[in-house]
């Protein structure tokens, strides 16, 4: 997923006619020009060829290579989870005199209840995302306002779901200390609940990434070596022959559905999905567990004292809302995918160490 040379929309098929007219007229057209045998001419030809392809809805690239690059994202997520899973055992040695008071059943030992509870509540919050946006769009006719309202409502719902997770696990009830401290068994229980939430989020995000890449399978043109006569180079890939008219109609419908889905993705990200640099999904997979741990630590610490309870809840909600607004469909194209990922990294690290500080883990 390399950076695009052009930010123009490849799915705007209405520009295809103008591109073809430009290719048929004028001595300066790339199709009517015989390039010189030089490196600069080859580069110019490749850029103009790529532009012509994108204006007609095609891209130069290899689907297998894109999938291989995106596979770095789930691998990064697995590595991040492995490191964060062993971090409490390495950095925070719990005293043996305070065993866990939570009555774990024999078939659900630690940390399975924490993981299952957080995964269940995340799944519920995720399933309600689209209904919340649909309801907001119906009640508010302005797209920007509807997006901001739905994002705010879903953020509040996510915070409430985290609080419900902690309540179901009886974290405060079975805590060994009257204040939040990493020496308490509740610290590790909250830690694993946050990892379960982040794991569910990672699975959903990785699945969406692969599904998005699959939309570009039929519009990718493998890069060809430079030829001495580019006028005879076929720019567009050959169409698959349908065995019968009904199959051809089905194929056309599938292509239209994929075209609409690609346009919707481009509206969300502000650029084609395959043009997002490969390290951005990897960075997002690291940001997610850090943010989840920080939010869970803040929300769980709010249950230990009434004096700072609402302050920690407001801090967690405001942080989550900031990142959610940055990734909203209308805001993200203006901010940029890279910019949102960098801001997310800074905020996630900040909230992670803030949560550790509340539990006395950075002293």
TrEMBL record:
Q: Which UniProt keywords apply?
A: Membrane, Transmembrane, Transmembrane helix
Basic and acidic residues bias: start-end ranges: 9-24
- Could you name the domain of life of the organism this protein comes from? Eukaryota
Which portions of this protein are annotated as coiled-coil regions? Answer: none
Q: Which residues cross the membrane?
A: 66-87, 107-125, 132-153, 159-179, 310-332, 339-362
Renumbered residue ranges of the record's region Disordered: 1-41
What name is this protein filed under? Uncharacterized protein
Instruction: Give the organism the record lists.
Output: Mycena albidolilacea
Q: What is the lineage of its organism?
A: Eukaryota, Fungi, Dikarya, Basidiomycota, Agaricomycotina
């Amino acid at each position: 997923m390399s950076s695009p040379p052009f930010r123009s929309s490849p799915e705007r098929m209405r520009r295809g006619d103008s591109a073809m007219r430009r290719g048929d007229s004028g001595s300066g057209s790339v199709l009517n020009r015989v390039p010189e045998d030089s490196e600069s001419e080859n580069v110019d030809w490749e850029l103009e060829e790529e532009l012509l392809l994108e204006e007609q809805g095609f891209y130069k690239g290899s689907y297998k290579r894109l999938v291989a690059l995106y596979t770095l994202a789930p691998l990064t997520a697995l590595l991040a989870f492995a490191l964060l899973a062993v971090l409490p055992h390495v950095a925070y040695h719990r005293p043996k005199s305070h065993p866990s008071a939570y009555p774990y059943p024999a078939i659900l030992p630690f940390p399975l209840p924490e993981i299952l509870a957080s995964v269940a509540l995340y799944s519920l919050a995720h399933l309600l995302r689209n209904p919340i946006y649909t309801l907001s769009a119906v009640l508010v006719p302005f797209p920007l306002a509807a997006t901001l309202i739905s994002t705010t409502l879903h953020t509040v719902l996510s915070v409430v779901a985290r609080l419900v997770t902690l309540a179901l696990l009886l974290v405060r009830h079975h805590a060994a200390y009257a204040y939040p401290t990493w020496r308490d068994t509740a610290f590790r229980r909250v830690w694993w609940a946050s990892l379960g939430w982040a794991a569910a989020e990672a699975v959903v995000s990785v699945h969406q990434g692969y599904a998005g890449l699959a939309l570009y399978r039929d519009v990718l043109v493998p890069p060809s070596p430079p030829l001495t006569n580019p006028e005879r180079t076929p720019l567009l890939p050959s169409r698959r022959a349908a065995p019968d008219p009904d199959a051809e109609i089905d194929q056309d419908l599938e292509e239209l559905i994929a075209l609409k889905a690609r346009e919707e993705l481009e509206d969300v990200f502000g650029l084609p999905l395959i043009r997002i640099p490969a390290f951005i999904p990897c960075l997002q997979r690291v940001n997610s567990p850090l943010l989840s741990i920080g939010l869970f630590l803040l929300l769980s610490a709010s249950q230990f004292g009434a004096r700072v309870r609402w302050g920690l809840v407001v801090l967690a909600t405001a942080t989550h809302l900031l990142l959610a607004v940055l990734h909203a469909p209308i805001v993200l194209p203006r901010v940029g995918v890279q910019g949102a990922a960098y801001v997310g990294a800074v905020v996630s690290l900040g909230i992670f160490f803030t949560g550790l500080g509340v539990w006395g883990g950075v002293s």
